[in-house]
Specification:
heterodimer, A: Rossmann fold, 2 domains, five-stranded parallel beta sheet, 12 helices, about 40% helix, B: about 425 residues, alpha/beta, Urease, subunit C, domain 1, eight-stranded mixed beta sheet, 19 strands
């Protein structure tokens, strides 16, 4: 297979296993490229990519922008913290306006689940989903799985536990789909209020006990716990306090040592040190957190490169 | 001169001629003759293989946007769509702007619809401005022609209001319509809570958001007495609740929206906002329970829950898209197709004709000589492809576009008016 089966990267659920393999093979080459003295290749020369961020992002945006620039694409950025609807312009109009300026590809982050899927049906461009609400974050899952593969050799049969706020996490959902396609076993672990009801229907194990989860897994992918889930004046909280969360689900070095095994530690960042994970774990030899960041650029280069090859240019 | 239906199958659960094939002659607004063979003479002859005639259908739940949201549906387009769907009467929901919460608004709807074949039966709001605070002038609206009272999809979160409304309605034997939806549990849901909502990362609408509110309303009904029709239910748990309440002898009836019988929560491909509806499409096990409920008489009515929307309300991010389907023109075919192996043709017709008319107190004479003509002509075995461009409704928001459905509408006749397709 030398071409992806899809025209867009909207979510991992729309990919075949062969697509993921192809992205990884391609990423492997690009990882080598970005470690050379001259880190730039002309693959996307004369391709214009617009990064449309309808929701704040620092690292994903930076990672995409670097990937685009390393591929010699022309890059434009559009940030609108408020949604297009609030601004009074529809999403389709916003994007069509940008496309009229001869943009070839769109990388988009949006607060609403399914927004890139919706857009792909109504505008004529190649779309890469950089996170859509609580739906998917496909490039994060790809870089996570790529980093896992790098560390373990093979993902097939690996036991991966995703820890934290599963309910509000696009990273968790994309990771579940990606790891399952690659043959890994997946467990989710977190407080009962942050694990969605019916998640078992996706074929994952569920645990509410971090020690049990660590005793089971080869890889712990620890998610950032979002402070706003403690609740505000308007909404009922999902847990009473960060303190209580950390008491139950915070991972420290002692817990890892007690398992008597090596567990690969991952985190999509940014880390709340001392909340979901202590510094000794985050900085340990088994942590691949910074490899994830490096691999993020290579994986995104691969995705951009493979999707750009489908763009017809006269 | 008149209309002669040649060799038409009579589907009328109340008639001795139910399921018989006859010629039916309609002249000057009345059924003048039913016989094996009536000569055509100067009458317009309608003859079609598989053609059936039944007492005129009545839809119990449609929302037109007139006044206030005429760009979605005005009374004229709404009634044209109603006729195109085979109905000769329709109960309209009060959530217009301003809300139908007073006699003048009821009169407006009746006046605007007075020349149309389709009889518009307005439901008045239960509370002023449908804000769920103070009772609306139900008695005054009742005297003006409002057939029932409801805040429709504006939830009545204060049980005391439902309590007072049911008690007050007993003064005039009024009918209270409940829309069982508690929006305070798992708020902002957009899809049935289940495997599909989890896999798509969208907020779920759990079955208990319906069942909790239905339980509450049943409890209040038991306490107050009065008459309640539950506009639509969608879950297996709700079927059980209604069944128990009926067994207990409470004065309660209920409906189901036809599209609930067709789609399940698994049909969420590509975040298609034309499938976004409240109540949401539930699990396949719920659909089974709804069908059983229809068969055993727990569910009395099949309705459209017609909600027409302009394209801008639907063609946007899934979360922002409006709920609802422009459904009244496909209601019969949707139900007819879904219930092929469940209900007999006359049982289906009972759910959209005689039962609604009994519940809302709008009976008509059945198919018999001398009766006032109020008829629906349809072909339950003919297939057709749905083209939203053919809709009479302003709302083209249908999930059925391009699909083949079973059951066509040939026309409607009421008094001396007829619309034939």
């Amino acid at each position: 297979m030398s071409k992806l089966s899809v025209d867009h990267l909207l979510g991992i659920k729309y990919l075949l296993k062969e697509d993921i393999d192809l992205i990884f093979d391609t990423a492997q080459n690009f990882k080598e490229v970005i470690n050379r003295p001259i880190r730039k290749v002309p693959s996307l020369r004369d391709i214009t990519v617009a990064n449309l961020f309808f929701e704040n992002s620092t690292r994903t945006k930076l990672s995409f922008e670097l990937a685009e620039k390393r591929l010699s694409a022309d890059v434009v950025n559009f940030s609108a913290a408020s949604s297009s609807v609030k601004k009074g312009e529809t999403l389709i109009d916003t994007v069509n306006n940008i496309l009229s300026m001869k943009v070839d590809m769109v990388v988009m982050r949006h607060p609403n689940p399914g927004a890139p899927v919706f857009l792909s049906r109504h505008v004529n461009t190649t779309i890469i989903n950089a996170g859509d609400g609580t739906h998917e974050h496909p490039t994060q899952a790809l870089l996570d799985a790529y980093s896992m593969q790098e560390k373990l050799g093979d993902i097939k049969g690996a036991k991966v536990c995703i820890v934290g706020d599963i309910k509000h996490s696009r990273v968790a959902l994309s990771n579940i789909f990606c790891l399952q396609k690659l043959g890994a076993e997946v467990m989710v672990c977190g407080p009962t209020t942050l694990i969605p009801k019916h998640i078992e229907s996706l074929g994952v194990k569920v645990s509410h006990n971090i020690k049990e989860a660590l005793g089971w897994c080869d890889v712990a992918n620890v998610l950032r716990i979002q402070l706003e889930r403690q609740g505000d004046e308007k909404d009922v909280s999902f847990f009473p306090s960060l303190r209580e969360y950390t008491q139950q689900f915070g991972i420290n070095g002692e817990m890892i040592a007690n398992t008597g095994r090596k567990i690969v530690i991952m985190h999509p960042g940014p880390i709340n040190r001392g909340v979901e994970i202590t510094s000794d774990v985050a900085d340990s030899a088994e942590s691949v957190i910074l490899d994830q960041v490096e691999n993020g650029v290579a994986v995104r280069m691969a995705v951009l490169y493979l999707l750009a090859s489908g763009i017809g240019r006269n | 001169m008149g209309i002669l239906l040649k060799s038409v199958q009579i589907i009328d659960p109340t008639s001795k001629l139910n399921n018989a094939n006859r010629d039916v002659l309609i002249q000057r607004g009345k059924i003048v003759k039913i016989a094996a063979n009536i000569p055509a003479e100067k009458n317009t002859v309608i003859k079609e293989k598989g053609l059936c005639v039944s007492p005129g259908w009545m839809d119990t739940c449609a929302l037109f946007g007139d006044p206030g949201f005429e760009h979605k549906e005005d009374i004229s387009s709404g009634l044209n769509a109603t006729a195109h769907g085979g109905f000769t009467a329709v109960v309209t929901m009060p959530l217009t702007y301003p809300v139908v919460d007073n006699k003048a608004s009821v009169e407006y709807a009746k006046f605007k619809s007075s020349t149309h074949l389709v009889q518009l039966l307005p439901a008045g709001a239960l509370s002023k401005k449908a804000q769920g605070m103070q009772l609306a002038e139900m008695l005054d609206m009742h005297h003006t022609g409002a057939v029932a009272f409801t805040d429709y999809k504006e939830p009545i979160n204060n049980p005391e209001l439902m309590h007072r409304a049911l008690e007050y309605s007993k003064n005039f034997n009024g009918l209270i319509l409940s829309f069982p939806f508690d929006n305070t549990i798992s708020p902002d849901g957009v899809w049935h809570e289940g495997g599909a909502s989890v896999a798509h990362g969208v907020k779920g609408m759990p079955s208990i958001s319906e069942e909790m509110r239905l339980s509450r309303d049943i409890e209040i009904l038991r306490y107050t007495g009065g008459k309640m029709h539950v506009l639509m239910i969608s879950t297996a748990g709700s079927v059980d609740l209604i069944k128990k309440a009926k067994k207990e002898g409470l004065n309660i009836t209920c409906g189901v929206a036809a599209h609930q019988l067709h789609y399940s929560d698994q049909d969420m491909n590509a975040f298609d906002s034309d499938r976004k509806v409240n109540p949401p499409f539930r699990a396949k096990s719920d659909i089974k329970a709804l069908k059983r409920g229809l068969k055993d008489g727990t569910i009395d009515v099949i309705c459209s829950d017609h909600n027409a929307h302009e394209i801008e309300s639907k063609c946007c991010e899934f979360q922002y898209a409006a709920f609802g389907i422009s459904s009244i023109e496909t209601t019969f075919a949707t139900a007819n197709g879904a219930l092929q192996d469940v209900l007999t043709p006359d049982e289906i017709i009972g759910k959209i004709s005689t039962n609604p008319r009994d519940i809302f107190g709008c009976p008509i004479e059945g198919i018999q000589e001398g009766a006032e003509a109020n008829l629906t002509l349809f072909n339950p075995t003919a297939k057709f492809q749905v083209h939203k461009a053919d809709f009479k409704s302003k709302g083209k928001n249908t999930p059925f576009e391009g699909q083949e459905l079973l059951g066509t509408i040939k026309g409607v006749i009421r008094g001396t008016s007829e619309i034939l397709y």
